[in-house]
Amino acid sequence: MQYWRILTVWGMLLTFIICWSVGCGDKPEPAQKEPSVTGQDVKEKAKSALDTAAAYLQQQKEQYQKQINDKLQDLDKNTADLKAKLETLTADAKAKFQEQLDNLQQQKQDIQKKLDELQTQGGQAWESAKPELESAMKELNQAYDKAREDLAKSKGE
Description:
It is a single chain. The protein is mainly alpha-helical. It contains 4 helices and no strands. Helix 2 (39-86) runs parallel beside helix 4 and helix 3 (91-119) runs antiparallel to helix 4. The N and C termini lie far apart (128 Å).
């Protein structure tokens, strides 16, 4: 009989422990209701995204313009150095190189004019004009390099 009492006590204790551990487990939380999205919310988010994109394009435009202007200023300094070296040439050679320098100046003015025109336009216009400006800058740099090389060759002769 005592065996049954001990077995019953242990059984009740084991049942209590099992029930307690199951009851204390993680209970699923009630599903939270998702906040509803209104048309006004969508409009505000879309406007915010557009404003951010416009600000980004404006920033890129300003950086690109500064980059081109810096390159043009460097080219002006280098061209001034070439002009100073022209004074040591003969009249015929001087006339030939002066023509090259005039062409450089015209190319630079064309690029500057394009930059000025794009200044008042939005970022989209800048993105579409970038390849044209980069091509013009490449041609200008090549013309400068050729003039510099030709001047160096004529001085060596």
